[in-house]
């Protein structure tokens, strides 16, 4: 049996509930496929703030760094919203991404046939959508310096951030995107604001340069405002999208909502191929503090994140496919949490959904 | 009779066609309401580049500054896409906004009952949407310094922009937004990324401070990624949205596409109340180079921008309402350009649409 050390970071809100389901699914799928897991549960985000006073304790980061893969629930909540920057739960997440050097964030947005009605888009627009956003995750305006508060020439207070990309940062995310597109339908759309921003002009120039290494992938460019429109007008035109940290934050959330089932969508954050550190896997939904602890959360995004962990993080494709098939089978049998419920199906809570997936595994 | 000097900036692509229609509509509505217009047509964008070598000639800017209002068609085209930054058509538009000091960009997104089918959103989600994005237009990452290309500590090339807001810049756009919300349904949603960016933290702090002057307006805050989702999930929840330059660029385009009729949507860009310079009025659609010169463009966004010019720019509310009513009446009679065409209506070109609006004026 192969054995892996997995760091579980339940985090805040519905995080603990969905992580608990995903852990059981991993255990069972692993047992069947001959994989053993050693789980270490560590605090992060608001939970860590309450416990230790910081959003990413050193112990959590080093446990994560030393493990084979990291599975995160969700982070944040009203309680900590007015904290200073270094004491925000979100800062813990950013430190974790930085500390794990996971610069490539893969966010699929797929409309499952079973859930096409959950989209607010017309059926003919939503059905068949299957796109992947490759978001740069450890650079750009999220991390650029200088940043902070200062005074301008008029002695007035200013708030300031820096959007900055270097050639090597762009090149490595572009390569991940081209590789991803190559394994999908061979189409890559790079999104920028190169008609206004110099950081985007360099982005576009380098993406075009890297394209020469991937003659089999069809590359197009789109301005971010237009991309936000095209996702609504005709999301099926997209296969793989690559973009910077902040545009990726916005567009991947928009794309996920277009599927209508954000409670279903996983994500993977990966480092350099040469880097032996673990990947970070998390549902793209937030901590949903308003339904936390009520057994209402949809655990499937986290379960599918666990499948991505197996596939992208550990190279265990069979176990990953077993989990994905179990999720589809559970949907086929009509089980639905509240967020994806429609008439004629069976409304279940987070735990019961987990049990049904276990049966199907 | 009142007399006004109007600078017309047809610009590129379909710009000349739609401006020509709007000019005729202004002339007729003005004649009926006792208003005289002196039009000065000046080059801007790609048209100006071809003619003078710069995207905003000094003569164009000073003519615009000296007039009572400026009506712009559209800017940009493939031909100039690879120009250097200072020779891009878009740079002319940014210089124009800066030169006219129009820091407040009002972008309505309304789903007209006549056009609800044009939206890719389900009817029950789209119908009744009526929101206004108030976008900061002369600050933030579009104008922030330092910007450009440079080398980092590793000797690597970087592209860099600065997102920066001062207190006075935030305060004045916040006031415009609160005033706008007060005249609408009294709800203002401020969109930022205050969980990550210091520029957004200052934004949120100042919007909350200005809110004290407007106790009758209900203020909420939303992160930009969530706003991009909520516009798809339930756009009716929004009344007035206020946000920075780049988020406003993205979200207003997304909101416009949600209406399904981007060819219908006008915008107004205004300066300080105390400032006597003119406002800038333009459709929110682009220059559509692929259909330029083919008499296929929808002129209604520009006609409605002319109505905004009358209302917000000149205080001529009666003439503005006459034009708005004429547009609705023309739609009621079933006239549609290709972009908003649906079965059972009459397909017309740009010119014929203009003639029908003239009849209705
Ligand atoms: C919580 C926040 C810092 C984070 C981000 O902006 O990256 C989240 O929105 C996400 O997309 O994972
Ligand atoms: C053409 C471009 C510079 C412009 C912008 O980004 O402001 C346009 O997208 C707009 O929204 O008016």
Automatic annotation (TrEMBL), chains A, B:
<dbReference type="GO" id="GO:0009098">
    <property type="term" value="P:L-leucine biosynthetic process"/>
</dbReference>
<comment type="subunit">
    <text>Homodimer.</text>
</comment>
<dbReference type="InterPro" id="IPR019818">
    <property type="entry name" value="IsoCit/isopropylmalate_DH_CS"/>
</dbReference>
<dbReference type="GO" id="GO:0000287">
    <property type="term" value="F:magnesium ion binding"/>
</dbReference>
<dbReference type="InterPro" id="IPR024084">
    <property type="entry name" value="IsoPropMal-DH-like_dom"/>
</dbReference>
<dbReference type="GO" id="GO:0003862">
    <property type="term" value="F:3-isopropylmalate dehydrogenase activity"/>
</dbReference>
<dbReference type="Pfam" id="PF00180">
    <property type="entry name" value="Iso_dh"/>
</dbReference>
<comment type="function">
    <text>Catalyzes the oxidation of 3-carboxy-2-hydroxy-4-methylpentanoate (3-isopropylmalate) to 3-carboxy-4-methyl-2-oxopentanoate. The product decarboxylates to 4-methyl-2 oxopentanoate.</text>
</comment>
<keyword id="KW-0028">Amino-acid biosynthesis</keyword>
<comment type="pathway">
    <text>Amino-acid biosynthesis; L-leucine biosynthesis; L-leucine from 3-methyl-2-oxobutanoate: step 3/4.</text>
</comment>
<dbReference type="InterPro" id="IPR004429">
    <property type="entry name" value="Isopropylmalate_DH"/>
</dbReference>
<keyword id="KW-0460">Magnesium</keyword>
<keyword id="KW-0100">Branched-chain amino acid biosynthesis</keyword>
<keyword id="KW-0560">Oxidoreductase</keyword>
<keyword id="KW-0479">Metal-binding</keyword>
<dbReference type="GO" id="GO:0051287">
    <property type="term" value="F:NAD binding"/>
</dbReference>
<keyword id="KW-0520">NAD</keyword>
<keyword id="KW-0432">Leucine biosynthesis</keyword>
<keyword id="KW-0464">Manganese</keyword>
<comment type="similarity">
    <text>Belongs to the isocitrate and isopropylmalate dehydrogenases family.</text>
</comment>
<feature type="domain" description="Isopropylmalate dehydrogenase-like">
    <location>
        <begin position="5"/>
        <end position="357"/>
    </location>
</feature>
<protein>
    <recommendedName>
        <fullName>3-isopropylmalate dehydrogenase</fullName>
        <ecNumber>1.1.1.85</ecNumber>
    </recommendedName>
</protein>
